Amino acid sequence: MMKYKFILLFFILLICVSNAEQKIFQKIHQNKIKREFSRSEFSELKSPEVDSSDPKWLRNMNYDQWISDMKNSFEHGNYSKWASSVNKQMNVEEMVQGVNDLYKSSASCIGCKFLVNMARIMMQKGKSNDQILDIGTKICNVFKIQTPRVCEGVMKIIGVDVVDVVRHSNLKGSQICRFFLGQPCVNGYAAQHDWNITIFPAKEPKIRYPLTKPSEKVPPLKILQISDTHFDPLYEVGSNADCGEPLCCRASSGAPNSTKSAAGKWGDYRKCDTPLILLENAIKHIVKTHKDIDAIYWTGDLPPHDVWVQTREDNIANLKFTSKLMAKYFKGIPVFPSVGNHESVPVDGFAPPHAPPHKNMSWLYDQLAVEWSRWLPTKTHETIRKGAFYSTLLKKGFRVISVNGNYCSRMNFYLLWNSTDPLDQLAWLSKELQSAEDKGEKVHIIGHIPPGGKECLKSWSSSYYDIIN
């Protein structure tokens, strides 16, 4: 998982280089964030200038030569004096070691700043997006971050989207690194991503005394949570389970080196996703063993981890199939779904409403409304189509609220445009909770990405906890 996230982050950082004109930046004030730029303002964004504080060796660096030297060093074991000097300056060994610990290692911030500066200089020199992507693919290959086809595939799948996003972002390079990595990048504060929202005016709850203890005769609710099924329709028994890519156990993974490396009938603990036989039999076992389930919380991440070749059509097909499977076996049991970060294409990319039309999320959200309608009332469809969140009763006095946490995710590169409660989801949540409190309802809030975690933006998490507390 972390390897693929690094590839995605690596690519994002490679081309996250656009700085806005100062007059646009001045329009943005802490806690008073403008929700979107107009098209005329987009056109005012210029190609970035090289930061004069960058060291001379970086401003004058020949990246083609550096990549060539790195390739030779891996093949023959010797660095040139020039490459050795550059690597020492940017601490390349520590940078590569930081791949597996993105959110803790200061080395990941070093790598981020290097890539941002590299792309900034390339753009200033008139390099095209294709040329920048080509350099990114070469670096991915030289450092063996992934296999060549994964390096190339990730660049192509998210390339157009990320280029559009960063060209319309007014963040500086250091701010971009802070946005994606958080704590490891101590510098790079951006006022526009430090925000809060106006919470719906709270009323003091009426506490009824004396508090009554629930009767022991009232049975407790039994709730089943299912998450991260990652069903892989291309799973193949006997294929290579240790192929060196984010996802193996497919015919395309090649033949195993030994019987120990072969994918088993029921799945594999290595880099493999869920075969149908495992998913279906697990559900059958649950149904047979637990006949008293009152409700199911189904918290997302349905597609496999083949993020370098995914299409919207693939993910929709997976959503339809898995939804039918749930409905087939859990008959008569209410299901409350949430959307995961893997449901979108590209992975983690959930565009806000003000994004250009071709990035609109209706291709996913409309289908979620259709599939989820098996279990949810019609009145939830409006907010599901808006942003895959909803509020509904499980039973009288007990409400379930499902939030779309992808709009708090650091890996959602669309938030570089504007991270301030893009769907007014938190404002909506505040009102829903106040309404539930007024009615004396108990509430469960479900979702895929937990607020307060390292992958969730601090401002979103803080606003969320202000609301629920």
UniProtKB/TrEMBL annotation:
It catalyses: a sphingomyelin + H2O = phosphocholine + an N-acylsphing-4-enine + H(+). SMART domains: SapB. The keyword Lipid biosynthesis does not apply. Belongs to the acid sphingomyelinase family. It comes from the Eukaryota. Residues 105-189 form the Saposin B-type domain. Coiled coil: none annotated. GO terms for molecular function: hydrolase activity, acting on glycosyl bonds; metal ion binding; sphingomyelin phosphodiesterase activity. Binds 2 Zn(2+) ions per subunit. Residues 1-20 form the signal peptide. It is found in: Secreted. The keyword Lyase does not apply. Its cofactor is Zn(2+). GO terms for cellular component: extracellular region. Zn(2+) 1 binds at residues 228, 230, 301. Its main location: secreted. Keywords: Disulfide bond, Glycoprotein, Glycosidase, Hydrolase, Metal-binding, Secreted, Signal, Zinc. This is Saposin B-type domain-containing protein. Disulfide bonds join 109-185, 112-177, 140-151, 243-248, 249-272, 408-456. The lineage of its organism: Eukaryota, Metazoa, Ecdysozoa, Arthropoda, Hexapoda. Zn(2+) 2 binds at residues 301, 341, 448.
